[in-house]
C-alpha cells in the first residue's frame, strides 16, 4: 500500500506512517490533534467487534479502486496490560462477553469459518510438523494429545480470539478495556482461550476465583480441555520458533512443554 495514496484518500494535511506488525497492513494517520488507526482488508467481523465494544470504535470503511478495503478506527489513548494485570476480573468479564456473544458467532458463521476442534488441531500438527516429529519430547506431547482426544470433546463452541497475550489487551485512559488483533479468531471450545490465559498469567491457586469472575465452574472436564490446548499450543510454538531459527525461544517452549507433560 502506497502511503502517499493513503494521504490523498484521507485529504490534505494527513501524515501516514506504518504502524508496524507482521503483515505490514496497518498505519497511523495524523492531522493536527486527530489520530486514526488504519488497516487494509480487515474482515467484516471488525464492525461487529466495534459494535460490541470489544475493539476501539470503527469510524468508517472505504473500498479502493484496486479492490482493497481500508478501515479507520479511533486511536486509543492508553496502554497495553501488564502480565500481572491479566488476573483482573475485568479481563475475565470481557473474555466471557466475547465467548457469550451470539452476534460474533453469527458473523463468523456468515464468513463461513469452519469450527476448530481438538481432533482437527491434532491432525494439523501431524501434517505440519517436520523434523520436530523426531524430537522425543514432541513425540511425548503428541502421544498425550492423541490419548486425550476422546476426553476433550466439547460441543458448545464459541468465538475464540486464539492469541490472548497481554500485549493484545488495551486499557484506555478512560479505563475502557479492549481486546485487539482478531486476525486469528476461530470458532472453538472456549477452553482454548481460557487455558492459555490461565496457564500463562494466573497462579493456579487463583484459577477458581478468576473463573468465578468469568462465570464458570472449575470442573475436571474444563481442566482437561484447558491443558490439552496449552500442550498443543506449546508444540506449535516449538515448531514456529524452530522455523524462525530462534533457539532461545525454542528452548523456553521445550522447557514449558516438559513441565506440562505427565
Care to describe what's here?
The chain is an alpha+beta fold and 262 residues long. The protein folds into 2 domains: 3-75, 2-Layer Sandwich (Phosphorylase Kinase, domain 1), CATH 3.30.200; 81-260, Aminoglycoside 3'-phosphotransferase, Chain: A, domain 2 (Alpha-Beta Complex). Helices cover 44% and strands 17% of the residues. It has 10 helices and 10 strands. The protein has a 5-stranded antiparallel beta sheet, sandwiched between helices. Strands 6-8-9 form a 3-stranded antiparallel beta sheet, covered by helices on one side. Strand 1 and strand 2 (26-31) form a beta hairpin. Helix 3 crosses helix 8 (207-214) and helix 6 (136-147) packs antiparallel against helix 9.
Q: Would you identify the regions where 5 or more consecutive residues have pLDDT less than 50?
A: none
Radius of gyration using CA atoms only: 20 Å
Count of spatially separate domains:
2
Helices and strands, in N-to-C order? HEEEHEEEHHHHEEEEHHHH
Helix count?
A: 10
What does the largest sheet look like?
5 strands, antiparallel
CATH level-four homologous superfamily name of the largest domain:
Aminoglycoside phosphotransferase (APH), C-terminal lobe
Mean pLDDT equals 91
CATH class of the largest domain: Alpha Beta
Say what the CATH topology of the largest domain is. Aminoglycoside 3'-phosphotransferase, Chain: A, domain 2
CATH architecture of the largest domain: Alpha-Beta Complex
Oligomeric composition of the shown chains: single chain
How much of the residues is beta strand, in percent? 15-25%
Distance between the termini: 49 Å
Major sheet: arrangement of strands? 1-2-3-5-4
Protein name: Phosphotransferase family protein
Organism: Ectobacillus ponti
Domain Aminoglycoside phosphotransferase: 19-215
Pfam families: APH
Amino acid at each position: 500500500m502506497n502511503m502517499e495514496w493513503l494521504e490523498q484518500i484521507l485529504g490534505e494535511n494527513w501524515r501516514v506512517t506504518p504502524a508496524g506488525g507482521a503483515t505490514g497492513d496497518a498505519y497511523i494517520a495524523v492531522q493536527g490533534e486527530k489520530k486514526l488507526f488504519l488497516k487494509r482488508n480487515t474482515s467484516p467481523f471488525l464492525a461487529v467487534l466495534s459494535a460490541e465494544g470489544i475493539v476501539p470504535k470503527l469510524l468508517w470503511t472505504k473500498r479502493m479502486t484496486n479492490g482493497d478495503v481500508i478501515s479507520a478506527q479511533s486511536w486509543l489513548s492508553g496502554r497495553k496490560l501488564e502480565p500481572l494485570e491479566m488476573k483482573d476480573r475485568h479481563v475475565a468479564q470481557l473474555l466471557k462477553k466475547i465467548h457469550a456473544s451470539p452476534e460474533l458467532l453469527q458473523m463468523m458463521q456468515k464468513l463461513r469459518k469452519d469450527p476448530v476442534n481438538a481432533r482437527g488441531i491434532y491432525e494439523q500438527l501431524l501434517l505440519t510438523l517436520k523434523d520436530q516429529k523426531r524430537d522425543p519430547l514432541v513425540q511425548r506431547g503428541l502421544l498425550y494429545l492423541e490419548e486425550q482426544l476422546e476426553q476433550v470433546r466439547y460441543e458448545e463452541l464459541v468465538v475464540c480470539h486464539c492469541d490472548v497475550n497481554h500485549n493484545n489487551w488495551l486499557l484506555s485512559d478512560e479505563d475502557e478495556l479492549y481486546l485487539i488483533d482478531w486476525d486469528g479468531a476461530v470458532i472453538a471450545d472456549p477452553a482454548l482461550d481460557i487455558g492459555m490465559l490461565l496457564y500463562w498469567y494466573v497462579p493456579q491457586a487463583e484459577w477458581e476465583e478468576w473463573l468465578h469472575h468469568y462465570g464458570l465452574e472449575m470442573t475436571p472436564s474444563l481442566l482437561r480441555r484447558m491443558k490439552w490446548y496449552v500442550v498443543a499450543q506449546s508444540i506449535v510454538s516449538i515448531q514456529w520458533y524452530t522455523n524462525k531459527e530462534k533457539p532461545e525461544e525454542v528452548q523456553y517452549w521445550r522447557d514449558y512443554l516438559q513441565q506440562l507433560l505427565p
